[in-house]
Each structure stands twice: as C-alpha cells, then as structure tokens.
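Researcher: First entry.
Model:
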Amino acid sequence: MEFYDITDEFIDEKTHRAKKDSDNKSEKKSKIKFISDCDFEEAKTEKKSRHSSATSRENSGTKNPIKIFLSMSPFGKRFVLSCVGVLVLLLLVCAFFGYSASFKKIENVKPLSSEQEIEFSALLDELYSEKRVSILKELPYSVSKANLDVWAGSAILIDASNGCVLFEKNADEIIPPASIAKLFVMYIVFKDVADGKISLDDVVTLPERSWAINMPRDASLMFLGQGQIVTLRELLKGLAVASGNDAALAVADYISGSTKAFVERMNEECAALGLTHTHFVEPSGYDEHNLTTARELAAFCKEYVSRFPQSVEEFHSAPSIKYPLEKNLPLWQKDRGDSTAIYQKNTNPLLGVMEGCDGIKTGFIYESRYNLALTAKRNGVRFISITMKGTGVGSKQGNAGRVHDGTEMMEWAFSSFADFNPCADLPDSYTVASLGSKNTNGKFIKLVPAWKNTITVPHIQGETALADAQSVKATVNIPRFIYGGVKAGESYGQIQYKLGDIVLETVPLVADRSYEKAGILGRMVDALVSWRL
C-alpha cells in the first residue's frame, strides 16, 4: 500500500486561492479608481440622461382625455356624451328651480326716494285728476235724486271727507258771499301760522280805519277801538263769532300791510284752489262786488275744515264772545274793568240746536240775502251745506229759513249716508312678482291704490246708514305676476268695494315704478318661471 503526502499539495492549493482573492480585490480597487478618474461632467450628463428617460417613461403613463375620447369606439363616445349632457341638464334644472323658487318668497321692494315719491304723486294727479285733484266730485255710483224742501235760491250739500256732492240746487249761480268771505281771511291766517310766519298770540296794532267808530252803521262789529291791546287769536274769534268787519280790516293790515295787498292775496289763494268764479274786492264781505257760487264755497269750506280743523274746534264752535275785556283796554280806560265789554252770541242759529253742529259761518247783505255755510259731525261723519239767497224779511225770518234749510239737508244726509274708510282695513300696497323685465331693485313690484278717498255709503239695507258702512266688503284683485316690463301709473289690478251685491266703487291698483322689458332670453326664462307661480 502506498501512502501519499498531501500536506504540500493542500498548502499549495490554499496559497493559490488566497492569491486569487487578492487579485480580485486589486481588480475591484482598480475599477473604482478608474471611475473616480473619469471626467465629472460626463457622469453628470449620464445622470441627467437617466432622469430624463425616467420622466419620459412616467409621462408616457399619463394619457390625454381628448386622445382617450377620440380613441374610444362610437358606442363609448355616445355613452360619455350622454352622461355629460345629463349632468349639465341636472345643473340647469337645479338652477331653474332655485331661481323660480325665489319668486315664491315675497321680498320687500326698495322704497321710492323722496324725489321719486313726488314724481309718482304728480303722475297720479295727472292720470286720475278727477279723483285726486278735484275738491268736489260726483258719487261713484248712481242714486235717485233727492227731493228736498230747500227754500234758499241756491244750495249744495257735500260729504266733507271726500267732497262727494249729495244734493244741489242752482249751485253754480254767482252770488255775493257776504260775511262768509271772512272764512277766506281766517284761512290765510291759519296758513301763515302753519308756515311759521306769524303766531296767533301776536299782538296786533289796530289801524284807525278798523276802529268801530269808523265803520259803516250797519256793519257787523267786534267793537275794536283806539289803543286796544288785542291778539290775533282774539281777532279770529271776533271774525268767527261776531262776524266783525272791523276785525277783518285789522287782520288784513297785519298780514299784508294794507287791505289792497291782502285782497290780492285772497284772490291768489282762490286761484290756487281752482275757484274760478270766486273774486274779492275787500275782505269783510260787506261789498256786493265780492262774488262766488254755492259750489265753490262748498269746495273752499271742505279744504278749510280738513286742513285747519282747529278753526272749528276753537273758533267757529264758540257760542259767544265778550269784548273788550279789561286786559284789552288802553291804559286810560283800565279803570273801567270789564264793564264796557259787549256780549255777542254766535251768529250761527243752528249752533247748540242741531246735534253735532259746530260751525261754520253766516252772511248777509241785501244783494245776497241770507247765506249760511253749515257743518255738523256725528259718529265720525261730517257733512257741509251751503245755502245762499235765503228767504225771509228781517233777521228773524232769515234765521228761520237758515234753520229750516240746514236741518232739512243735514238730517237727510245723516239718515241716508255714512262713511267707509278704506285705509283702516287694507294695506297701503300689494307686492307682485315682476317677470320678463329688467328689474334692478329685486324681483317684485308694488301696486298701490290710485286714490284713497273715503267712500260715501248709501243707506240701502241695514238698520242705519252707519250699519251699512260697517258692512262694506273689499275684494282685491291682483295678478300672480306682471310679465314683460312695468309702467308706472299703469293699472294692473283693482280693489272693488261692495255693499251686498252693489258695487260702490272700483279703485285701480297701479305700479309705483317702471321696469323695462327684458331681452329675449330673459323673457323666455321668466315665461317658464311663470308656469310655477
């Protein structure tokens, strides 16, 4: 058996492997050294190239929607278009329902400015002058002519709240007003007081021509005298109660500086009120060349009482006057006290006799005979009557005629008519949707009554005229919407007032502003909206 010595071989093999490993390490170090020795810019360029390639590969993964859509099959394209169409349609439907729903929630309309209010009021005055501007007017319904036993040659009876004529007899005959002219003097005083030009407590210096001793013997007097201390308020009482011609002259001088200037003012006021047949030459009514008619006196009295109700409350309803008192006397007469005061009853013979009578004024000269402007108020209803050319010889018979005619007309009026006030139960305006218009102030418009006059209600079914007035019903007819622009003053609805089946009055509801018509698209959209209102 042979034995081999492997020790040397094992050592040789081990040494060979170690050398091989050493050579490999040297080769790796050589490669690292080679890379580190390469140009740096070339390595950087290579890195950018690799990054660009990666980005390109990434972008190639994001596809263009248009290219995707174009690459679809015809069926796929139709499906996508259908989905988009449905989505757009849903959005439009939601927007439409939201827009149309806004018309169902009534919004407050932007109020008119002060200037617009004035312009609108002037427009209505022009369009509905008979109802809004005219002081007197006919009843809005037909009634049988009253058969009243009035003795005076000329007469008229009106509802003081609205100027409706209830009865008339030769009301346009031109007749001197006599002392009823003093109402115009008082009207001017109250107007100037309201304007702040004067005060009723002003002390008035009495011109010599206004002293009682310088007046005509048959003139009505307050008994003014030299040096007396008298206020404007006391002079008005002298006009209203005693019908003092002296007081009229004193007031005229105080207001205008002269009688002539004051008379010019009286005629100017008549012209402003539209009293074309009324003319004055002096303020007391003593002159027969002062002229008017029963109709125009009634119109004036309506304005006078409605504008200055204090004239009735404080002056015309006063039962008497006592003048001059000690306080009115000059220093050299103070020791007389009230002993020189003259007591005079109110010249109105129905004051304190007729229920509700509280004024207004009597008048007499031979050319006009016995005149009476009368007013009375019961249960909130006021009537005014004018009688001129009253019958009778002497004041006793003249006053008897005044009482007869005044009672005849007033008692008939209170038993036959009462007033209904629309403003008490109805709103001032009605809000309506405005479609198809260029509306910059919201989606709505206001409709307002063209006029707001009290309605004179006839006594035709209830126990009393007042009961009938309380039975009046109002029916408001307004459209659901107004389409295609709005015109201010144009009627778009109405309020109808009825007593039972009888229509008393129909009042138009008019737009308080104008809106231009919208364009075709706006009108088309709002036409669709109208179907939902």
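Researcher: Second entry.
Model:
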Amino acid sequence: MNDNGLLINGLPASIIAVKNASAGHTVILVNPHYHRNWRYGQETIAFPVNILAPATMLANAGYTPVVIDTCVDSDYKETIRKHISNALFAGISAMTPQAPHALEIARFIRQISPNTPIVWGGIHPTLYPDTCLNPFCDAAVMGEADETVVTLADTLRSTGQIELIPGLAVERDGKVVSSPLKQLPDFQSLPWMDYSLVDVEKYIFTWSLQELRKVRVMSVQSARGCPWHCAFCINTTLNNSRRYRCRSADDLLDEIETLVNRYDLEMIIFSDEEFFADRQRVEAILDGIQSRGLNHIRFNATCRVNHFRDGYIDSTFLKRLKQCGFVNLVFGFESGSTQCLEIIRKEITVEQGLHAAKLLSVEGFMAVWGFIMAIPGETPDDLMKTLRVMDKIRKMGNQNYFIGPQIFRPYPGSELYRKALEAGLEEPKSLEAWASENFTGEGWIGSDELLWIQPENRAFIEYVNYIAPIYYNRQFLKSSGFKAVYHAFLRMLFAFRLTTNYRKVAFEHTLKSLPEKLYQRVSKVKQ
C-alpha cells in the first residue's frame, strides 16, 4: 500500500503506475449496449460520442485510443483481448440503462487482465460514484471526461496518485474520496471529434422520416448543457456540471463544411439539447450556411415551443430556416395538461405548443413531438388531455411524428426520481443491484412498478403505450392485409375513447398478436 492507501484491484497504485509506464500509450474506451436483448444489425445506433470525445482528446495528447463500440462490434471481447496487454487503463462509459452490460464488460476485463485499471465514466458514475467503486471499478470519472482522461493517463504513467485528479472518485482505506470537479472546459477550445477513430460507414446511414429512405447523416454538437430546469431531466440535478456552453458559428460551420465534403453527407443533425437557446448565434449560423452554399444540406435540430413568438421564432424566421435547409425540428412537449407541465417544470404552456404546431404545419416543417405519461402526480384526466392535444396536432398535417407518450422513466438523481422514491420505488445500493434492475437493464419500467399510479389505472397506461404509435403515426406505418384492417379497427376504438373520455375495459393491447394468428389460419385453409 502506498502512502495514500490507494489500491487498484488489491495492488498499490504506485505498482500499477510502474507497470503502466511500460505498457505503452494505448487506452481502451468501451461503449456498452443498452439492453440485455441487444440484436446486432437490428437496433438503431448512433456514433458513440460518449467515448469518441475523450478518445479525441487522448489522440491529440499523443496516446493511442482504441474505441470499442459494443453496439456494432459483436466480437468486442476479442477486440478488448487484442489490446488489453498494452493498455494504460480501460475506460467504460455508462448511462444507467447500460449498467448491466458495463458490469459484464468490466468483469471480463478483470478476468483477462487483473492489474489493468478499470475506470467508469458517464452519467451513472457521475451520480453514483460510491456504488460504482467495487472490484470491477477502480475509479469513477465525474462530469465531462474530455480533459480528465488525459490527466489520468499522464498520472498512471508517472506517480499513480490518481486520487488527486479533479473530478475522479476512488476508494482509499475503505472510503470513497474525490477531488472537487474542475471548472468545465471552454467548449470552443475542444477539438473537433475525430471520426477516423471509428468505422464511419457503420453509423452514417439514418432513416429519414421526410424522405422515407436512408440518408447519409452525421450528428454535430454545437453546444453542451441546457439552460432549462425540467424536473425529470438529469441536467437539473447536475447543475453547474451541465452548464450551457456553445461554440461560435464560424467554428461550427468550419466543421460542418469539412464533414460534408469528407463523408459526402446529405443531412446534419444538431445533437444539442437546446439548439435555439441563443437566437443571435442561430442567425449567425444561418448567415454562414447561406454564404458557404451549405443550404443543399438538410438540417435537424431540437427546439422549444416557447420560442415561437414575435421576434424569436415566427413565420418569417421559419421561412428563413427552410431556405437554409432546416427541415425537421424536435420538441419535448411532454404533456397536454397544464398541471403536469407545472409538475415537471417545463416552463411552457399548452397554448404555446399548439401555436408552434400550427406555424410549423403552415410552413411545411417536419416536426417530431415527444410526450410522456405516468409521471408522479399525473391523473387519468391529465393523460386524456395529453392524448387529445396530440390528436389536435395530428390533424394539423401529416408531417407531425410522435414519440410516445412514453412511460415515465425515473432518471436517477432527478427531482421526479426522488418523488418516485417517496412513492415506494427502491433505489439499488450497489452496482450489481443497479445492473439487475428492470428499469436500468431494459431502459424502462413495467406498469406494475409504477407505484405512484393507482393499480386500476395501470392497464390503461399499457393500452396507450401500445395504441399510440398505431393511431398517431399512421402515415408512417406500413401495414397491409389483416394487419391494416385490424389497425383501422383499433384507431376507430381509440377515437371513440378520446371523444367520450372512456378509459375502462382497455383490452385492445392484449390482442396485439391477433392479425398474425388470423393470417396463419387463413393460410392453412388456403393450403
């Protein structure tokens, strides 16, 4: 044990540092997949920016990052085995739904290379560093890892005193210790993402709702953090560690222009949580798109309905957005109930949402609307209000696409998560317990675990979860034969429920396999 009492898998950190000094400059960074039943080639995948960003920093600092995305690499264990002997450390990025697979990966690494330090990063270890630190996690990075991973690599090659690194949690003498989070880096000063570290062609094609085909797309982050305070969101919990910071228009456009030319892109998705937070910056971006001749590219961005007002986003501004290639805006409307919008502290009104939807429909924009249900405090009447608001938007035009209403996911650390705990939801006390939980392993929780919802109302929530995409996204569904007839029947029943406010005897979702069964019977008769 060294003077600081820090152990890595039972060995003093000083010994690990000596070992790693001769290990080379390789750092393994792993992105786990999101649920236990991951199907390679059949899941929606995105560039693993959670490990690509720190990998870029490591590469710029002279290290050799090995980016392993288990979402696309079914032989990831062999890839890890190939590089582990020369690795300074192995980093695993994990949101809470990734905890089960992250733990599996950590166990594998510990088995094949017992003395290689295993470091966890991402939202989950940021929130729960104490439960992450165990025999399969030697250190937990809290907050943004861009600069921390470089400091960690440098330290492991020298003193090994990683407990002095700001934003890193370790176990020392049986206690969890950590240095205060360092000041967030200037987002403008960070390098562009180095996409050469991954096989771009595995990620670049994305289905376009507008064109109903796959197009060549990349995501670009023009800002980090969010200036708003939604009670269900992790940003509110992290406070200053997720403070809103943005890049200049010129730097952003330089990167976009480079990516478009290098990868023959058709579309850019701004992955910001709030692209329109600074209208003046957006104006500068639009100026640059036009002056550089980039308006042949389609752009997708997130937005908020309360921006739709005179002097911010109005008909004139929407027309300019369209001229510059913006074709799709994504909104978190969340609820059609004023009471629920206040509960989640969305800082919008139902009227603002409907006003935004109307303007977007008039100007011919594709709009994606996100809604949630079963939040603590929501009543059955609140849910019906949400469903009717969604129906009003649906009737405004076929270019409206709906996500949800999804069953509320209690994101650990958020204000609504604490309310869920007060209602009886039990918080896991160890990493193993987190990994075994249904809502972390599968990404959502079942209706029987919605302890803040009366049991008699849970069946209707299950029903809505099934019927909503069939009813609201009908123009995007490809169904024929028995399934088409059955879906038409379901829509008729659902429309009746919306009109009459009738929630009882919600049985339709229990018959979801009926079309297939009828088709099989008819096929047998024909034979």
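Model: Note on the second entry: The CA atoms of residues 173 and 243 lie 34 Å apart.
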